[in-house]
Write the structure tokens for this entry.
Amino acid sequence: MKYAIITGTSKGLGASIAALLMKRGVHVIGVSRSKNTKLENLAIENSVSYQHYTCDLSRVEKVERVFSIIANQCNRPEITDIYLIHNAGTVNPINTADQYTSEAITAHVNVNLIAPMVASSIVLKKSKKFNLPLINVYVTSGAADRSVYGWSAYSATKAGINRFAKTVALEQSQLDNDNKVMIFDPSIMNTEMQQEIRSTSKDAFQDVNQFQQYKKDNKLRSTDTVAQVLINILMESNKIENGGYYSVKDVL
Ligand SMILES: NC(=O)c1ccc[n+]([C@@H]2O[C@H](COP(=O)([O-])OP(=O)(O)OC[C@H]3O[C@@H](n4cnc5c(N)ncnc54)[C@H](OP(=O)(O)O)[C@@H]3O)[C@@H](O)[C@H]2O)c1
């Protein structure tokens, strides 16, 4: 039996990844602040389980507690593969760095960087103990590799998670296991995150007109289209390049 632990399943890309995996017979554990009842119904229709953990990923102590509970569930003989998909993310605060508050910076870094690092560490430990093959997926952004006016926090955390992923891949490659680590760049999608980006002021985000134009020109991909690209990669996990960077733009 295959299990996927996915953060940010309440909406957007995470909801699509969860739905498509369940349709492929994968049991899903979702983590976000709000529930997604559609996924619960979809699980019943597809004879798989969908388990939700309510957790604010900006609260490190809650991340530790929830992922310890989830990781302990992995010690089940019927589990053959685990996908750990770090998808939850925030682009806020969008503003120049001189306007940030320490609270906003802390919450942002906790969600985008600390939570996936803590969750990875906890689940990697258990996968080693229980000898379970683990595929760790980190959802990134092109902003990790370029400077966008008003996105210094977002670029910094996405760059940080990329380096973390590549370093974990290096470490795992030296162990006698089948674990894989991959970075997934979904490019631009039609989600609430894009709505937030489009509604920012030009003073805070100089490229706002360009992002409004993406929407008008129908350039934002649907999350189902993007999730399908990831699912195709995961379904042939033996071909995944450990530490590899997979961009939707290379496929679609
Ligand atoms: N949309 C794009 O164009 C785009 C482009 C490049 C990369 N990405 C990346 O793709 C991933 C998914 O983005 P999306 O566009 O689907 O975003 P979205 O529609 O805003 O959804 C974000 C998800 O993350 C969860 N989340 C956010 N803050 C959280 C917190 N404090 N605690 C727990 N869960 C939290 C949300 O759940 P709750 O609100 O219920 O907690 C939600 O399920 C992100 O990593 C993002 O950086 C997106």
User: Anything to note?
Assistant: Strands lie at 2-7, 27-32, 50-54, 81-86, 134-139, 180-185, 244-247.
